[in-house]
Design goal:
This protein has 297 residues and is an all-alpha fold. The protein contains nine helices and two strands; from the N terminus they run ααβααααααβα. Helix 6 packs antiparallel against helix 7. The longest helix has 34 residues. The radius of gyration is 29 Å and the shape is elongated.
Length: 297
């Protein structure tokens, strides 16, 4: 009887060790396959690749990494604005207004600004909805409704982008002349644009902050526009890998551009008294000009 028990125990132990070894072997095999281990396959698009992980890696990078860090960045900025507004308040004019108005922007320049700004906001909102829509809406609507939502979000986004492209090109060329670095920009950076000081800023027509915004539009914007064109104009012999890379660049740099735009919007609305007037009326008070752009006024 004891002999039978011993034999049964050995059989069970042998079976368990065999199963564990087989599972470990299969786990190692699949790990190697997922890492790109080659082998025979009849698929011609990815010869000898048993499992093509590029799609999953792209989805993870775009929908998890970029989306997560992007959400932290944008929400962190909004929180920073609230704290800054509560603790510092608006940058007020240090002296009373004189009533003398100085023309800062002509009508055509303001039209260009608002044309691109409105289209940018439409693209930013639809782009964020496309990036975060699954997490926000899919738990509450069925898949058919979600597909309908995605379809029209993409249509609005692409149509807005088409019209935005013309304004973007004109804006980049028109404002280039004001955007080159100058010696007084160092003082502006040292004093953070007068955020915590009460001194007039040594700035020409564009302050150092506006120049940074321009170059973000130029470099980051060009990357976003270029990657968007690459994904939509399928005339360049695009590959799947190329489209995935363009999608990653488009999402990542769009988040950076939106973050910079939020800073720009805050600075010229809630952040600083009198700034918004320059783009609504085209004129600024003499006091504002001397305080923020003393070399121009």
């Amino acid at each position: 009887m004891n002999t039978i028990r011993i034999l049964l125990s050995l059989f069970v132990l042998f079976s368990l060790s065999t199963a564990i070894a087989e599972e470990s072997s299969q786990s190692t095999l699949w790990q190697k396959v997922r890492e790109g281990q080659t082998g025979y396959t009849a698929v011609t698009s990815a010869p000898n690749m048993l499992i093509d992980n590029r799609g999953q890696n792209w989805r993870q990078l775009r929908s998890a990494t970029i989306a997560t860090y992007g959400a932290w960045l944008l929400s962190g900025l909004l929180l920073a604005f609230a704290i800054l507004l509560f603790t510092r308040g608006r940058i007020r004019l240090e002296k009373p207004r004189t009533g003398k108005k100085i023309t800062r922007w002509h009508e055509s320049e303001r039209l260009l600004h608002w044309y691109t700004a409105i289209l940018f906001i439409i693209m930013a909102l639809t782009g964020l909805l496309l990036l975060y829509g699954k997490a926000i809406f899919l738990p509450y609507v069925d898949k058919a409704q979600f597909a309908f939502y995605l379809k029209y979000c993409m249509i609005i986004h692409n149509y807005a982008a088409t019209f935005f492209l013309f304004g973007f090109i004109i804006l980049v060329f028109v404002w280039l002349v004001h955007s080159f670095p100058r010696s007084e920009d160092k003082q502006w950076f040292m004093k953070l644009g007068g955020l915590f000081s009460h001194e007039p800023m040594q700035a020409g027509f564009f302050s150092a902050g506006q120049k940074i915004w321009y170059w973000i539009i130029f470099w980051v914007g060009s990357t976003v526009v270029g990657s968007g064109l690459y994904m939509n104009l399928l005339i360049f012999g695009q590959t799947t890998s190329g489209l995935q890379l363009a999608s990653i660049l488009h999402a990542g740099f769009s988040i950076i551009w939106i973050a910079a735009a939020l800073i720009h919007i805050y600075a010229h609305t809630l952040g600083r008294e009198g700034s918004l007037e320059s783009m609504t009326t085209g004129k600024v008070d003499e006091t504002w000009a001397k305080q923020h752009h003393s070399l121009w006024s």
